[in-house]
Design brief:
The protein has two domains: 199 residues, NAD(P)-binding Rossmann-like Domain (Rossmann fold), CATH 3.40.50; 116 residues, UDP-galactose 4-epimerase, domain 1 (Alpha-Beta Complex), CATH 3.90.25.10. It contains ten helices and 14 strands. The strands form four sheets. The chain has a seven-stranded parallel beta sheet, with helices on both faces. The chain has a three-stranded mixed beta sheet with strand order 12-9-14. Helix 4 runs parallel beside helix 5. The longest helix has 21 residues.
Amino acid sequence: MRVLVTGGAGYIGSHMVSLLARTGAEVTVLDDLSTGHSDALRGGKFVQGDIADASTTASLLKSRGIEAVVHFAACSLVAESVADPLKYYTRNVGGTVSLLKAMRDAAVEKLVFSSTAAVYGNPVRQPIDEAHPTQPVNPYGSSKLAIERMLAECHGAYGLRVVSLRYFNAAGADAQAGLGERHDRETHLIPLVLRAASRNTSVSVFGDDHPTRDGTCVRDYIHVSDLCDAHLRALDWLATGARYDCFNLGNGDGATVLEVIEAARRVTGRGIRIQRAPRRPGDPASLVADPTRARRVLGWQPAHAGIEGIVRDAWAFEQLRGR
């Protein structure tokens, strides 16, 4: 299959490009490098550009004979989205509008979309399945939900084949391939904890009075390699018919902040100091996926379910970066 990966130089996108290349797909990467890294590419043809340029994207789709698109390109920082919502609607929603116009022009009908559990907002029941109400509480989640609704309407109007994959907490790394999290402004817990271990600094714990087993927030961490496997299965599923669907991607189990830190202590063999801080406004106590539909429909089964294994892979990449 000839696949275009937008945002393919980013964290999850680069792992996806690596997997596609290993399976023999002909991969083209389109990335503006605003947050990605060209040296993270492990295969494919790289084109630096912006999906907002619909005519250039359409020409690329045609010239490369693209059959399907895996769409990662987006802004994804919750706090930034609250401070600058127009950036998120312009880049995420507007960029996807341009991408869809280019796909229509080039007669490309298959799209796998990188969505998020942020579309659900504060949970009203757990674990969260796909029928859970979608009530995002920040512009990032709202922009992703707006895209999902647009994709559903394009499926109805134009026959676009779409799978939206709602990630919970992406984590881990493929250190053997030299791939992992390289955010210039790191906000994810596991790399922050490992950075504290590496640099002998402390890590902040926001709230220890949540209604959870140890008072800290619970999150469902899913290994980046398992996420990419789900995208590959979604591409295969789209190839079998004209479809539209959404699937949750998580392990169906959660780890608290303190459990993540304790796993990091075991993996690194280092004492990691914590600094307790007040709860962050709008931080749900627990977010855990019900991934039953993805397992049943796509035949997807996470291979890296344990938090310690996820942390171990992320630590291997952190050590690689420190050399």
